[in-house]
Amino acid sequence: MFRMSNPADxxxxxxxxxxxxxxxxxxxxxxxxxxxxxxxxxxxxFGAAKHYAAPRRLAVWVxxxxxxxxxxxxxxxxxxxxxxxxxDGNPTRAAMGFAQSVGTxxxxxxxxxxxxxxxxxxxxxxxxxxxxxxxxxxxTRALDKLPIPKRMRWGNSKAEFxxxxxxxxCLHGTEVVPFSALDxxxxxxxxxxxxxxxxxxxxxxxxxxxxxxxxxGYVIADFAxxxxx
Length: 229
Hints:
Blueprint: E1 8-16, H1 24-42, E2 49-54, E3 57-65, E4 72-80, H2 81-84, H3 93-101, E5 110-114, E6 117-126, H4 131-144, E7 165-172, E8 175-176, E9 180-181, E10 184-187, E11 189-191, E12 200-202, H5 209-215, H6 223-228
Parallel strand pairs: 7-10
Antiparallel strand pairs: 1-3, 1-7, 2-3, 4-6, 5-6, 7-8, 9-10, 11-12
Helix pairs in contact: 1-4
């Protein structure tokens, strides 16, 4: 049985100018749902997802995200055996054309029996895809799908969001997942409270995020906790 190697927590944070208070929770939840859906659709297994929201940030923390997808068996059916060989057992143009189309020889093709007869078939195994190659598109699509009724542009940027975007943080384990979105490049840097700690804060791993913001940045990232304070 195939086993995932080195699952690790995942963290994505979007840093912005002050977001409208009324949309914070809804946008954070939607971001979490869309990212989780992207992981499921691409075959990246994970544990649980939790979203965070504060006036200048939306974030998603996902536990135990696999570092790659499972290998996938690909099966392509060719011509019926009775059409693939002539009376002397030699491959026909149909058989040779199918073999060429899948990059192999007629001799290497397998046969598959169905209730409608026997067919030539080509089977191969596609290796798993690395999470680092899938995450950029998953996150970008999630951002595009957020329920924002009216997006804005800022400065000379062609990017559009509900408020100007100033930083992106994206980690899988201790590694930065590098990509660009909304005119920003991902890193492992976040920022604290605008007045109490505006300096950058390095996040070394997703599990450090909430407490680093709380104790260093003077920010409560958990929306429910903020509401109860």
